[in-house]
Amino acid sequence: MEKKQFQAESKRLLEMMINSIYSQKEIFLRELISNASDAIDKIYYKALTDDTLVFEKDSYYIKVSADKENRALTITDTGIGMTKDELENNLGIIAKSGSLAFKNENELKDGHDIIGQFGVGFYSAFMVADVVTVITKPLDSDTAYKWESTGADGYTIESYEKETVGTEITLKIKENSEDENYDEYLEEYRLKSIIKKYSDFIRYPIKMDVTGRRPKEGDENEFEEYQEEQIINSMVPIWRKNKNELTSGDYENFYQEKHYGFDKPLKHIHISVDGAVRYNAILYIPEKMPFDYYSKEFEKGLELYSSGVLIMEKCPDLLPDYFSFVKGMVDSEDLSLNISREILQHDKQLKLIAKNINKKIKSELQSLLKDEREKYEEFYKAFGRQLKFGVYSDFGANKDVLQDLLMFYSSKEKKLITLDEYVSRMPEDQKYIYYASGETNERIEKLPQTELVSEKGYEILYFTDEVDEFAIRMLMAYKEKEFKSVSSGDLGIEAEENQDENDSAADENKEIFDYMKNTLSGKVKDVRVSKRLKSHPVCLSTDGEVTIEMEKILKAMPNSQNVQAEKILEINPNHEVFSALKAAFENDKDKLNLYTNLLYNQALLIEGLPIQDPVEFTNDICKVMV
User: Fold this and answer.
1) Helix, strand, or coil here: 339?
2) Measured distance CA(406)–CA(366) in Å, rounded
3) Residue 116 has pLDDT above 50, yes or no
């Protein structure tokens, strides 16, 4: 028996591959099972052109067996087997793929596809094995062969006795080291887990002898273990089944089986595309937000399969961030994979799939909004914030995609409404889409700044998420209607009543307002007569781009800059407080200082802003009471 050396290039490639190509050692089982599936497929394609060969699918299988005592793991298939020349060419020359050559020589159809393309998957076995032994008998041959290797130092080939056609690969599993537990690849539960994870949808049965427990005959209190051959994989994936044959229960079961979430999905989306890029996908819109959704630990992405074999558990490139809540999988035969089949070599196909998926998700959400409003509102309460982050992020690049999916609480309807619903019922004389920001709807409803807008009969949108104003600033307008905060210095509303009186009050009392402005130097930009207040004595409004709510949010951020809104203290000239201000200005400047500080702090409290000196504030109140 002659020992042969790998080619020099192959030897270096093998050493590199064992140490660096694959990110996880468990991948070896996926690779060997995929090769076994290819070997069975080759018989199928041969039967298409050979009338003497009948392919009966039920006769073909893959079996995984573990022998703990001898540290041996065996993968057996009933596939086409290999001749001596094929052993030399396919296993003796690394990166020469017999499957790829077969694929190029044959026209593949009927939904079958050869998985292997690079001829390196087999050698992943050396990540976990000291010795790899291949015993194979090719179809239409009476001679079997044994190929054996301990790795980069070479291999041997010799004739061997084997009764049945097919291939048996035995791995002598390595001993444990300080860094690696190789015992796990001999454990039944671990092998089942890896098979289900990566190879659940291989089209042929993957069998294992599974240990069970049962009561001993004649004694129900005593139990005994027994071995039973079971099929581990599902074989036919749900996405390849006819949609008309599937029920909502089938999709929900798949959601649970894949551990996409502990909830029930609000909606499923089943996509089958046979175009420039062929792919199948099943997507889910969850009912509830995952507990870690806004944490660093959360990973977005869909499961990515190639011909039914799991390539990536989380493929982030398939989903934009604003749809990162979507769960599910994509399976395509057209992906260009890298040598390890773990990542994509070219992303052109993936970008096309992602673009189509993105459109489909938006379309389904719009349908949900239109036809199942309660379900959409349930979804929006869980993930609406993410859509708003999507509008804000990337400098508003996605605002046109998302604006029709946004909802906000309405002052009139007392429920969530869309921007389209708001604009569709705007009075002709209304120039802007008005909004008010605050911590809760209840607090916003009591804001003094809403008085004039509400009196005009205009609807106000309530913003209670920290991202709301930032998103709206990025959106700028909806259907040519600009957004306007009720705290804006200019509301764009002509207050006909008392307009002349207000203008007159501003002119006549300019000295008072200038004095109050000096008293609050550094705290407010200006003190003015209010055109918006009706029953309240005072409020804060803002000039510039930064609103008071935005200031609060920015200041709460880590390493925040000292961002300040340009605050305007507005005084209601028709409130009795204004009479007290005028009297104090004429007779007692100290009292005017006291009143000014009290009104300013009162306005801060209304806005939910902290008072700079609470002790001074309480002392000022006491002075008024004495």
Assistant:
1) coil
2) 10
3) no
Query: SS3 for 103?
Result: helix
C-alpha span between 174 and 16 (Å, rounded): 18
Residue 385 and residue 465 in contact, taking contact as beta carbons nearer than 8 Å: yes
Complete edge-to-edge strand list for the sheet that includes strand 566-571? 526-529, 566-571, 538-543
Rounded distance between C-alpha atoms, residue 216 and residue 225, angstroms: 9
Q: Cβ atoms within 10 A of the Cβ of 146, count?
A: 18
* Cα distances (angstroms) measured from residue 544 to each of 379, 489, 610: 35, 9, 21
Q: Per-residue pLDDT for 77 more than 90?
A: yes
Closest CA to 38 of 94, 89, 90, 74: 90
Topology classification of domain 238-371: Ribosomal Protein S5; domain 2 (3.30.230)
- DSSP SS3 for 145: strand
Q: What angle do CA 357, 362, 366 make, to 5 degrees?
A: 145
Residue 176: in which H helix or E strand, if any?
none
pLDDT category of residue 13 using cuts at 50, 70 and 90: low
Structure-block tokens of residue 475: 């959106």
User: Could you check whether 238-371 and 499-625 share the same CATH topology?
Assistant: no
Mean pLDDT within 56-72: 95
User: What does the pLDDT look like over 276-294, one tens digit per residue?
Assistant: 889 999 999 999 998 889 8
Name 343's Cβ contacts closer than 8 Å, sequence gap at least 6.
Answer: 311, 312, 337
CATH class held by domain 3-231: alpha beta
Residue 100: band (very low, low, confident or very high) from pLDDT cuts 50, 70, 90: very low
Name the token pair of 236: 């036919």
Q: Kindly state the average pLDDT of the residues 288-309.
A: 91
β-bridge partners, 167: 77, 136
Give pLDDT, residue 534. 87
Where along the chain do its domains lie?
A: 3-231, 238-371, 392-485, 499-625
- The C-alpha atoms of residue 529 and residue 50 are separated, in whole angstroms, by 95
Rounded CA gap, 63 and 137, in Å? 16
What is the spatial distance between Cα 369 and Cα 225, in angstroms, rounded to a whole number? 54
The answer to whether the CB of 31 falls within 8 A of the CB of 121 is yes
The conformational region for residue 259 under phi > 0 = left, psi -120 to 50 = alpha, else beta, is left
Instruction: Please provide the distance, in angstroms rounded to a whole number, between the alpha carbons at the two ends of the chain.
Output: 111
Q: Examine the pLDDT at 152 and tell me if it is beyond 60.
A: yes
Is the CB of residue 587 less than 8 Å from the CB of residue 547? no
pLDDT the model gives residue 118: 35
Quick one: pLDDT band at residue 224, thresholds 50, 70, 90?
A: confident
3-state secondary structure 184-207: HHHCHHHHHHHHHHHHCCCCCCEE
Look up residue 78 and give its two tokens. Answer: 């009933």
Count Cα neighbours of 130 within 13 Å in the Cβ-side half-sphere: 9
Q: What is the CA radius of gyration of the chain?
A: 36
Q: Which CATH class is domain 392-485?
A: alpha beta
* pLDDT of the residue at 94: 61
Q: In sequence order, which residues have a C-beta less than 8 Å from that of residue 362 and are 6 or more positions away?
A: 401, 405
- pLDDT at position 117 over 50: no
At 581, which helix (H) or strand (E)?
helix 576-587
Write the pLDDT tens digit of every residue in 548-563. Answer: 888 888 877 777 667 8
